Every structure is written in structure tokens, then in C-alpha cells.
Amino acid sequence: MTPGPSTWPHPAGVGCSDGCPDSHLGTQLGGADVGELLAFDRDHVWHPYSSAVEPQEPYLVESADGIRLRIRDRAGRPREVVDAMSSWWCAVHGYAVPELDAAAHRQLGAMSHVMFGGLTHEPAIGLSRRLVELAPDGLEHVFLADSGSVSVEVAMKMALQWHLAAGRRRTRFFTIRGGYHGDTFSPMSVTDPVGGMHALFRGLLPEHVFAPRPPGGLDREPDDPELVEWERRTRALYAAHADAVAAVIVEPVLQGAGGMHVYPPHVLAVLHELAREHGALVIHDEIATGFHRTGPLWAGAGRADDGALAGLVPDILCVGKALTGGYLTLAAVLCTRAVAVGVSGGAAGGLMHGPTFMANPLACAIAAANLDLLTSRDTEAEVGRIERGLVAGLERAASLGSVGEVRVLGAVGVVQLREPVRVAEVTAAAIDRGVWVRPFRDLVYTMPPFVTSDEDLGLIASALVRAVADVHG
Question: Which positions does the site annotation Participates in the substrate recognition with KAPA and in a stacking interaction with the adenine ring of SAM cover (predicted)?
Fold first, then answer.
């Protein structure tokens, strides 16, 4: 059901819809003129992946509560829309979450920030304790970073230092095509160099080793012909570069911003085996997939009935996005005792990284409360419910001529088109149906908050299918 008109009168922009009188909507937002705000934004504010001089026209957000955003549509009218994106996959509990708000208020009463060099504090210790408890067995050291991209930088640096400390100069990383690991330089270098969004920087980045993208489909058996051929090529490629590979880095089971590609667990098993055989480390990038996004707590650990991933514990684990429930930027890198001892025993005497806002107390306090909230609920069951709702709701898209494939994994639903998405048109069509989505490349997808109701799941799925049908046919 599309959100209907709210009871009027009420404050302008709060619960407003097409049912509110025009005179009530006004043009003010927090005392500022909406048109003036958007004009300044257009002339001076540079948005992600966009032109500074010919920008896409953004929607102005007034507030957020639950899983809904209150925005201004292109006509300047207040609208309430369901956030089908979890604010780039991080707001897993939605907005204005009482438990997270309370944690923020408590921490602000003590301190919002203090440097982590030479000092420590309870929020960082408490968060690290929770992460070690939740992480796969053996990951017992925690380095707190600023963002997901920075955590990958740290993980790669950690792997390089580990080899250097042992007298080995291994400088290359092994991964699979179709991946995405962040926008800073080291993560860009292990993101797909041809089809990825950083292909522009080829020749400027270090060159690493990319195996073919594995065939899609979670349920492919190891003897599947396409998977057998992938394994043959990958083993041969690794053998040719084995002495130079410091670590394998991979997004387990689901490649996120590289194309929402789901691949068989056997792929992960092969990559682990190759690394172990040749003395390399394994890095799992669970920034997008961790904390139940694909169903289990860690995508790399698999579901309870999935034996293919049993025992595949990485040496280094990167987490972010959902870590703070979408409140503040924070990420973490966890590693084994062996890695920590190796790095610390080198000439440098420690890991050579130290962000200014490392272990920010406010972010750590909120993250700890967020993990408490995740573990106090049956989050895996919640995600299973969302998976079933997305499967049922998106299946109609498969019959559209413009659609190449529909796939769902956990709280991830993807409609892949046969052509590039007309982003602005699809976004506007979804907003007209009460849903915020942000398509990219040839994908119209949703990663809804875990607290999304069945009714709102139906609304999201319907809006995606109808938007694709209206714009692409």
C-alpha cells in the first residue's frame, strides 16, 4: 500500500503528502528556502559519482524515521518514501532507532572524541570485545578504522607487512573479476580493472592478479562444467604468480557494487585452498555482506546447512557499513594472532597506520549498541523472511522483456536489465509509488532495512517491478 495522506494540520513537511493543502507545504526547511538550498547544492556541492558542473538533480531529505524518508520531490512537494536502500546498505534498523539514539546521548555526555594514540577508552574496548565474540574463531585482534575503504587499505597493508617481517617480498594480491573493494587507491587496485567503476585509473594503480569472474548461482555443484572450467583456469593463473601473491582478497559469495553477482561457495573454498598451499593470507571483505545481509552473520561462514564453507576462516576480516547501524562512519579489521604477531615482529615494530578518528568513542558506543540490538533479535530469521518476500515480490519482473535476470540472496533483491538503467527515470517512477531506490549500471535492486514489514516489502517489490516496466518495458 502506498503511504496515503496524513491527517492535517501538522508541521509542514512532517507526514505531508499529496493530501496536504498547497498553502501548508510552503517552501521552508529549517528556516532556509528550499529553492535556495537546492540552487546552492547544484552550484557548489559535489555528489558521489557525479559531475560537478552538470549534476543530476538530487532529492532533498527533510527527516528520516523508521524506514521512511521525508523528501521533497522534483516539484518541491514533501513526500514520504520507504528507503529500499538502507542508505547504501548500512541503516539495517532504519532511522531514529531508540537504542542507538540513547547510546549516542549517553556517550555525548562523556566525550565525543579523543585520540587513540597512547589512550584507550571503554567504547572501543567494549566494541572490540563484541567483534571478537561474533567473528569467526581465531580472529582475535581488532584494528578500528574510519570507513570500509580504509579498512581494506589497512588489511592489504597488514598482509604486506606480515610477509616483509618474515623476509618475503610479496607485493601482489589475487582476486576475482567483478569485485569492488572501495574507492581509495589500494582498494581500487583490487577492484575489477576492466568492467569496474575504476577502470579509468588503469596504468596508475598497482597491477594485481585477477582470476575470471566465477559463474553465477549459489547452488552450483563443484562438478558443474562451467565451475570446473573456472577452477581449472584459476588454479593455472594462481600457479603462474604464486611466489608473488601476498594474499587472496574476496567478497564472500556476493559481489556488491561490482554487480550484485552471487557465486557458488565452492569458489571460496578453491581460493582458500590456493592461498594455504602457497603461503598466502586470505582477506574476506565483508563490508557489504557482513552482519546478516546475505542471511548468516558472515557470508563467508555460510548458512547452517551449507557445508561448503565450513572451516573457511580468513586470516583478515574487514567489516563496516552496518557496523554502526548507519549512524556514523566506522569500520574494523580483525586478524588472527599469527598475523598480529608477524606484523608486530617486523622492523617497524607495529602496523604502520593510525587514522585521526580511529576508534572514535561516539561511533564505537553506537556500534556496540547496534551489535547488541542485532544479537538480541533473531536477525537471521528476519532476513529469511525478507528473502522470501523479495522472491515472491520480484518474480513478476522476470517476465518483462527488458529484464535479463532476477536474483535474491538474503536481504538483497536484484533485477538485472538487458541494457543500462535510465537512473533518473526509474528513480522518479519508484518515488511516485512511495519508494526510494538508487539503481546503477544495469541493476535495479533493493537492500532494505532488516526491520522492513511484509507490507512494506510488498510495496518495495511492486515499485521496483512497475518502475522497470514503465521506463524500460
Answer: 49
> Binding site annotation covers 149?
yes
Catalytic-residue membership of 445: no
Looking at every residue in the chain, the average pLDDT score rounds to: 91
Query: 95 catalytic, yes or no?
Result: no
Rounded Cα–Cα distance for residues 278 and 259 (Å): 30
Rounded to 5 degrees, what angle do the CA atoms 283, 183, 357 make? 80
Residue 219 among known ligand-binding residues: no
pLDDT score, position 29: 54
180 marked among binding-site residues: yes
Task: Give per-residue pLDDT as tens, 416-426.
Answer: 999 999 999 99
321 annotated to a ligand binding site: yes
d(CA 376, CA 32): 41
Pairing of strands 28-29, 32-33: antiparallel
Cβ neighbors of 192 (< 8 A, separation 6 or more) are 177, 178, 179, 180, 198, 199, 210, 213, 258
**Set 22, 49, 137, 223: catalytic member:** 49
Instruction: Examine the pLDDT at 20 and tell me if it is beyond 80.
Output: no
Asked whether residue 356 is marked as a ligand-binding residue, the answer is: yes
Choosing from 83, 285, 442, 456, which is the catalytic residue? Answer: 285
User: Has 321 been annotated as catalytic?
Assistant: yes
Q: How far apart are the C-alpha atoms of 447 and 23, rounded to whole Å?
A: 36
The amino acid occupying position 123 is P
Lookup: cell for 383: 532476513
pLDDT at 307: 62
Q: Which of 263, 315, 321, 456 is catalytic?
A: 321
Q: Which of 83, 95, 180, 327 is catalytic?
A: 180
Q: Tell me: the pLDDT tens digits for 140-164? A: 999 999 999 999 999 999 999 999 9
Whether 157 is catalytic is no
Give Cα 391 distance to the centre of its chain: 21
Find the helix or strand (DSSP H, E) in which 406 lies.
Answer: strand 403-408
Long-range contacts of 226-230 (CB under 8 A, 24+ apart): 227/264, 227/266, 227/267, 230/267
The Cα–Cα gap between 317 and 313 comes to: 9
Each residue's pLDDT tens digit, 77-98: 899 999 999 999 999 999 999 9
Whether omega for the bond prior to residue 9 falls within 30 degrees of 0, making it cis, is yes
Residue 157 marked as a ligand binder: no
